[in-house]
Amino acid sequence: MRFVKYILLSVFLFNFTVIILAQDKDTSKEDEVLRIETQLVDVPIIVTDKSGKPLLNLKKNNFVVYEDGKKQELSDFAATSAPFEVALLLDTSGSTRSDLALIQRAAESFINSLRPGDRVSIVAFKSYREGNKSIAVSEVLTLLTDDRNKLKNALANVKTSNGTPYYDGLLQVVEKVFREIPKDEFRGRRALVALTDGVDSTSVAGFDEVSEEFGQAGIVSYFIQVDTREFFEENLLGDCDGAMRFSQAQIRRYYRTFYPKSKIEKVFNFCNLGDFERLDISKRLYGLADAEMQSLAKMSGGKVFLAADLSEARGAFTKVAQEIGTKYSLGYYSTNEKRDGSYRKIKIELKGIPAGAQIRAREGYTAPIN
Question: Closest Cα to residue 305, out of 185, 198, 222, 220?
Answer without folding.
Answer: 222
